[in-house]
Design brief:
3 helices; about 80 residues; single chain
Length: about 80
């Protein structure tokens, strides 16, 4: 249940961040900062199940999203 909840949290914050950016919200850096954290946690959780191809794909996508969000939030590259 905790893993599914984290996947849902990740999907929701990604959607919210995209919406803030599309609308040109001045607060998009805040949602991107939160998104980077959630995506990184999701990647770490999926990595625990790396014997599954879908979970390996999840790790890759979540890490790329986390990195992109860190850049948009103005957080140092590779920082957490």
């Amino acid at each position: 249940p905790a893993h599914i909840r984290l996947l849902l949290d990740c999907a929701q914050i990604c959607e919210t961040s995209a919406d803030f950016m599309i609308r040109g919200s001045d607060l998009h850096t805040e949602t991107c900062r939160a998104c980077s954290e959630v995506c990184e946690r999701c990647a770490e959780d999926c990595a625990r199940m790396a014997d599954d191809a879908e979970m390996r794909a999840c790790v890759d996508v979540c890490r790329r999203c986390a990195e992109s969000c860190r850049q948009m939030a103005g957080v140092g590259v590779g920082a957490r």
